[in-house]
Fold:
Amino acid sequence: MAKQQSFDDYNIKREVLEAVKKYGKLPEDFRFDPEIFDLQKALGVDKTAKLLYDGKKDKRTILDKTISAPFQEIRRFGGSKEKSEIENEKNWYNKLIYGDNLQAIKYLLDNGYKEKVKLIYIDPPFATKSDFSKGEVKAYRDKLEGAEFIEFLRERLILMKELLHKDGSIYIHLDQKKGHYIKIIMDEIFGEWNYKNQIIWMKNSLGAKGSATAYPKNQDIIYFYSKNPSFTFNKQYFKQKHLIQHKDRKELLPNGIKIDEKGQYYWTAPKGDYTDESIKALDKKGLVEWSKKGTPRIKTILSREGDYLIRKRPVEDVWTDIEMIFRSSDINYDYPTQKPEKLLERIIKASSNENDIVLDAFTGSSTTCAVAEILKRKWIGIDAGKLAIYTSQKRILDIKNHKPFIVMNSGVYEIKDIDKQVKIDENLYNNFACDLFQVNRNKKESINGVDFSGKYGNNYVYVFSNKGKIFRQDLEKIEDKLEGKLKRVYVIISQNQDKVYANYLKIKNTEFYIHKIPYSLIVQFAIENKDSSLIINHLRKNYILKANRGNLKNADNENAPEIDKKALEKINKISQVKKKSDIETKFSNIAGFDFVNTFEIEIKEKIKEIKDGIEIKINKVKIGDKEGINNLAMILVDKDYNGKSFKVFNTFFADDDTEEDEEGKKIEIKGFVKTKKITIDKKGLGKEIGIIYLDDFGNELFKQFSLK
Ligand SMILES: C[S@@+](CC[C@H](N)C(=O)[O-])C[C@H]1O[C@@H](n2cnc3c(N)ncnc32)[C@H](O)[C@@H]1O
Structure:
């Protein structure tokens, strides 16, 4: 900061220029950050190439004005069941974060992760498809084109650089259409001298990607930058195989390979940079071949595997030995754009060491996190899609002996441990819970000794006390007392009490819809502990403010505006993909207001056994006052639900119309909006299944069913 302010400071400038004159180089402090001290600018000859476009923000504005969206713990797998204490080196939890990475990165930055991340790999959506179909303005907003795409990434890259450790590196995976623009942006942010490689990953894809008038496209580009000239790098090698041919029962060695008197296969190369001393040392080991004229050539010994000679070669910047998912033996999580584990293995091994923190801010199915986990690195994955989060959750759970990890939402306040300090008034809490979900408190009633707090629509609402954990048995007790008198009961619990792990349960003939108040809201309530309506107003304003990215006045200000309608509209625009193929191109700007699930989702389905598995017919979908299956975005199914951790096996999209087969050919399929049903095959089908219905805005309804 001090350096930044002194950018124009005459004395500093003079000092630097003198140092340059005297020593011929810049003082250490100023050498490698062109944005902090730009020598060219100081000398009045700024010749750096820059990309110009509309809407390019100032770097300082991005660093200072980006809103950070605090994390809210949603689920925890392994480790202590208590909420994490302040994190430290020993008490680390890997993190899977649902939310817009811009705000999440800013939060990491403001909360102790500055310069802590050793390696960042990102694989953002490609923004290559335009969906400017007539009259579809909304869809246009979801996908960023041209300059908007560049600025979208630039903002995030500027913040990510701050997270990077001083020895850290960043890899950005792009296709060839936008790659070069981003290269210029990367040079601006990281400095051209920190550009290390343009890695070409030859994908060997089977589907021809070119038109008849051009060459088929077969590469992705990965830019590799370090934060500083000195950085962690472990040289990587790969095995190159050379086939030994046979002719007349004799072996024909591949071109350039010879065999020495000890029977060792070898290959030679010119001495290159080797000094006379190193040549002597190598010669002692028998690794130098001398020509008749006395010129040394360096020997590389090859090993033999059957009819192949294996040469260990350093990995160069064209990677041809890594196959795409569907052709390799990688586990396929059926996530569009899923990258091969081998690719990430190479990157993670090269640019980090055990226990280092690895971040993927566009984590998708979390190839990065899974490989980081296997290679004993710490990891953080961020994604704005619920499918990505559920796919990643399953993927990590599939790793034997995985380290503990937490699934978090980015966008809700959490004030640690405050609930231990503040006593919560039960009556106020009850009112607060009711008001939060708009329960009619005038309809209080006791039925068979069950005290309902009010009604929502025609059904009774039971609010559990804020003390202790709530298990399925607690609902069974209510059902017991009610003796089947009520068909549907709404239940409210606080999220930190949740041991039911579902938001829908049918016990005998009573349907329980369980609604959870985010932990952070409870905490907020505990702090305020005043009139609940005031608190709700405060929260609404506060959170909507966040959604609006700080355009309104400070919410803590007594004169802060009432709920801003425009901001609300913006929240409503957050959407989940409805087509599988959209995952490749969709960008998200998720705002931070989270009611885990409202009363609003109602779904009626019928499960039927069919020859090859089960069929689930969706008969009714009602979300708020909107009726119709087209309000759903996705259905996720765990075929063998263990009652605790949801592992997504099948995903169904609302509007899917095509699917790619193994050869990359498009086959026509139908989304569930058209078919009104989904079918799940027998393979791996257990006794219990879990279903998550996701609406357009990421609200979830979880249901569990027992199969006969
Ligand atoms: C190309 S995919 C990543 C695939 C991943 N490398 C893998 O191996 O599975 C890009 C991901 O970025 C996510 N995404 C898009 N905009 C985002 C944002 N603003 N914040 C976080 N994630 C975002 C998408 O949901 C998508 O999952």
Notes: The radius of gyration is 30 Å. The chain has a mean pLDDT of 79. DSSP finds 20 helices and 35 strands in the chain. The longest strand covers residues 164-174.
